[in-house]
Amino acid sequence: MSSDVLVFVEQRAGAIKKASFEALTLGRELASGLGGSVNAAVIGSGIAGLASEIAAYGAEKVFTVDHADLELYTGDGYATALSTIVSDTGPRLVLMAHTALGKDLGPRAAALAEAGMVTDVTAVEVADGSVLVTKPVYAGKAYKKVRADAAPAFISLRPNATPASESAGAGETVSVDGPSGPFLSVVKEIMAASTDSVPLQEASVIVAAGRGLKGPENWKLIEDLAAAFGPGVAAIGASRAVVDAGWRPHAEQVGQTGKVVAPTLYIAVGISGAIQHLAGMSTSKYIVAINKDADAPIFKVANYGIVGDAFEVVPALTEAIKAAVH
Amino acid sequence: MEILALVKRVPATDCKIKVAGTGIDPAGLEWVMNPYDEYAVEEALKTKEAKSGSVTALSFGSSATEKILRTALAMGADKAVLLQHDGDEPDALAVSRLLSDKIKELGAEIVFCGKQAVDNDDMQVGQRIATILGWACVTDVATFEIGDGTWKATRDIEGGRESVEGSVPVVVTCNKGLNEPRYPNIKGIMMAKKKPLETVPASPGDSGTQVVELLPPPARPEPTILGEGSDAVPALIEKLKDEAKVL
User: For labelling alongside B126, which of A199, A220, B109, B138 has CA 20 to 30 A away?
Assistant: First the structure.
């Protein structure tokens, strides 16, 4: 076992996820605390060119598994490739982003390594060689501190929870032989959502709405407010009530049986703030609540509140934000 | 076809969680089947309707979990098995090993479970079981279609959706929206009382990680009510510019 940290770097079609740079940055800090170095693993097809981008965030070695059969994600294929690097290099920690791909891959690779894993992590500390990991549980109604002392320990990091910063490493590329198909499961096709929409968990601003909007036909109001922040900035969220009523798709649901989000700014329009909704958004940096009921629980977690009718307040806010942004 | 649904007993999502040591204060909590596991049970029942066979509900947990397994039986599962353990909950590494052994013993070919349990929000057990058993796995599925020794699924990813295909045996972890879980009717509840529910004592092996403490969430800053109606908008814009610095 070494004191090194291995970071799985996620790429889709040659583009590295921002959350992977966050993982590299934290990996670099943890490696320095442990007295080792941070290395990276990247898996895919035609990915050799990514090494310099990865090295910019501190990777000393970049292990690449480059195979045509690994172009699109395959759970068992990627897990086998990653676990080969883990068993060859014996890292103390294996880090990755808690994304759709990371959530699927991490526990599989941990199972192959017969290792423990802590998922959806918001902080990691090293003290006297011991690794202490913090993760939200009950959708954020509580936080759990977990000791991960057996090596290797796998950790997936919540996107946006830790910063990304550059600090160059040597970036020596090491090519690793990977598995070839057929695999037990393979991604066949990726269907992108409309090009101008921002993924909820990656957005820096979320405009979410609930029953206060009275019907699905009124969501133009919310779309306009989101658009006022400029292209590619704000995503649209929804309360469970409006998802269960069929007004909005489940992909937009924020809360304990939807997505847990932590944007810089969360604007809640006509959302009363049921406990399971609050669990999903109360780690947002700034929360704005607009609700006509002054006693609505949403105001208790909000930084700023406006008591009023969404149909009056939102258009005025949209115009004011447009003016401030342009 | 032997079909399995994994279920877990968790506090209902509308419950307040009070921290007590490394665990939670059980006073006043309502315990339910993990909401995502309801989709797993429903998908297992639909798969039985399409392919015939039998559905077993399997759980790891305390003796109180029997009530949750009865709910699965009332929904339509044929039998239930509880791996009973009343002590501290081991981590996903240890739980997955126990469940994998039982799944192998039961001869299942397809396992449905929730994409995560809403207590630990771990999202590990399904993937680990598939890996231990050497099976295919698809997680967080929005749609699922079983074929002849094959399956097709779609799942939400950042900025879209992907389609996934693979072979049977398979572990499928279910997201909300996959189906509409049926409610147990009176007849189902009556029949559930007579269906077999086997309780087996379980001795989990070592965990890979140890819980040190449970903490309440960080406190939010004191809220500022800026005013009423659109007259308060300029004050909000000032705050967003000067304090939040998002504009």
Answer: A199
